Amino acid sequence: MQNRFRLILAAVATSGLIAYGGTTVSGADLTIGTGSTSGVYFQVGRGICRLVNAGSASHGLNCQALSTAGSIFNLKGLRAGDMQIAVAQSDWQFHAVKGSGPFADANADSDLRALFSVHGEPFTVVARRDSGIRSLGDLAGRAVNIGNPGSGQRATMEVVMRAMGWDKSVFSLANELPASQQSLALCHNRVQAMIYTVGHPNPSVRQAANLCQAVIVEVKGPEIDTLVDENPYYAYTQVPGGLYGGNPEPVTTFGVMATVVSSAKVDAGVIYRVVKTVFDGLQGFKRFHPAFVGLDPARMVRDGLSAPLHAGAERYYREQGLL
């Protein structure tokens, strides 16, 4: 499996969708698929691995977080056995376990298992201040980075586009840069707006706000009302005011949850150890990123989880009285 995984990673790295961060895969017992190095998913994976690796002398596990193209790539890789744990948006977890949406060309993933949810992720539209973009509808006719194929942000943007009755032709340019490149494209005026489904605060959004006085745009209206009402994994939320320079007021949008998932094929004892390590060390985990500060164990075992709990995770939660 490791040889197969290295071949896949090499192919994806060549296409610019995955980064190694100067490390290798071959020595890892656990690989966690995350997202862009500029996003919070990478910090989720890195935080889990730091805690797991800190206790490796007692349990023998070695963990590595991999930067990938994002949620959909991770869920497909997890199903193929190319990684043992993955971070994914709650909506794409739902579709993977149902065999719907971007997973409609495959059967429902009956082996997909939930471990826990992490932070909330608002669908975030960031625009150049001089663009005049102040609402979702203002994106029509503009140059917009809609995200790279395989990423959760791209898939969510496609959901929003369908809700609005749009396709890519509605934009003067529909760019497909990964999250790590989009803030500089915005500030260099190659696009007028960028899309990001991400926890806040986020360094890419901060970079856009600091370098080119970008503004966060409201995402609401009757089409979004219907989207939220009809899909249990969506909810209205806000990007708090004051997180980014020049954006003092909270901005309304909708969002999903970041979730950590695995496969029923992964040993229950291994998953038990990972979950126990994270929850026993939750106060330390919260320090890895500001988006984790409000994590609540009672909500982590419930919110945004469509797949059944992994047997190893369920064992730990029952021991702790969380179920």
Describe this structure as you would to a colleague.
This protein is of the alpha/beta class and 323 residues long. The protein folds into two domains: 2-119 and 257-319, D-Maltodextrin-Binding Protein, domain 2 (3-Layer(aba) Sandwich), CATH 3.40.190.10; 122-256, Periplasmic binding protein-like II (D-Maltodextrin-Binding Protein, domain 2, 3-Layer(aba) Sandwich), CATH 3.40.190. 38% of the residues lie in helices and 19% in strands. The protein contains 13 helices and ten strands. Strands 1, 2, 3, 4, 5, 6, 7, 8, 9 and 10 form a ten-stranded mixed sheet that branches. Helix 6 (152-164) links the parallel strand 5 (143-145) and strand 6. The chain is globular, with a radius of gyration of 19 Å. Mean pLDDT is 90; it is low at 1-27.
Structural class: alpha/beta
Low-confidence parts, pLDDT < 50 over ≥5 residues?
1-27
Distance between the terminal alpha carbons, to the nearest Å? Answer: 34 Å
Whole-number radius of gyration? 19 Å
Instruction: Name the CATH superfamily assignment of the largest domain.
Output: Periplasmic binding protein-like II
- The helix-strand sequence is HEHHEHEHEEHEHEHEHEEHHHH
CATH topology value of the largest domain: D-Maltodextrin-Binding Protein, domain 2
Most strands sheet = 10 strands, mixed
**How many beta-strand elements?**
10
In the CATH scheme, the class of the largest domain would be Alpha Beta
Question: How would you sum up the global shape?
Answer: globular
What is the name of the CATH architecture of the largest domain? 3-Layer(aba) Sandwich
